[in-house]
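Quick one, T. Sequence first:
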Amino acid sequence: RVALSGDGGDEVFGGYPKYLQSMYPRSAWPLGSQLDSVLRSV
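Structure tokens:
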């Protein structure tokens, strides 16, 4: 069986910067750009 949601891996895991920024505003990051750069490298 298959479930279709219409979301690809990029949308689900926040692969594009625009999705990541909309999910987690900068004010929510306690470590600011350091944590942002670590998450982008994963």
